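User: Sequence in, structure out. Go.
Assistant: Echoing your sequence, followed by the C-alpha cells.
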Amino acid sequence: MDAAIGLRAKTGRAIAVVIAADGGAPSFVWRDELRLVPADATIGPYHEVMELPWTEALIAVRPLEREIEAIAVAALRAAITAAGVKIRAVGVVGSAPRDIARIGNPHIRAHAAEGILFRRVLELAAKQLKLRCSGFVEADVDPDIARPLAGAAGRPWRTDERLAAAAGWAMLER
C-alpha cells in the first residue's frame, strides 16, 4: 500500500496524518500529534530570547534549534513506525519563509520565526530519514479534499488535521 504522512507544523508540535492511496482515492490510516520541543519547554524557542536584539537572538537560539531538529527526527521516525505502513513521502504544511528581521515587534517576530522553524525541522527530519518531502503553505493545499475522511478518522477532524491529510494526499498524487 502506498502511503504518505502529512504534517501540519505548529509551534512546538505537529499534527500528523497518514494517508494511503486506495483505488485512486485517499484512505485514512493513522494520526497523532508529534511533540517537537523538549519535555520541559513551556514556550517556543524564539519566545525565550525575544527580548534580545534579533542578531543576538539568532545566536542564542541555535542550541535549541539543534535539539529541536533531533527531536523532530525521532518524532517522525516514531510516527512512521506507529502508522504501521510503508511511508514513501512527507508533506509539511507550515509557514512560508520570509524575512523575519524586518518584523519590528519582538513578540510577532518570535511567532513568525517559530512558524518557519517548525516547518523547516520537519522537512529536515524527512530528508534525514531519506523520504521524499515537500513543504506547503495553507494556500497550496485544499483541506476540503480530506473532509470525507472524517468518519474513518474520528474526532478531532479540524482544519489542521484536514490540512495535514491534504498534504499527504498531494504527495501521493505526485
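User: And one key feature?
Assistant: The two ends are 16 Å apart (CA to CA).
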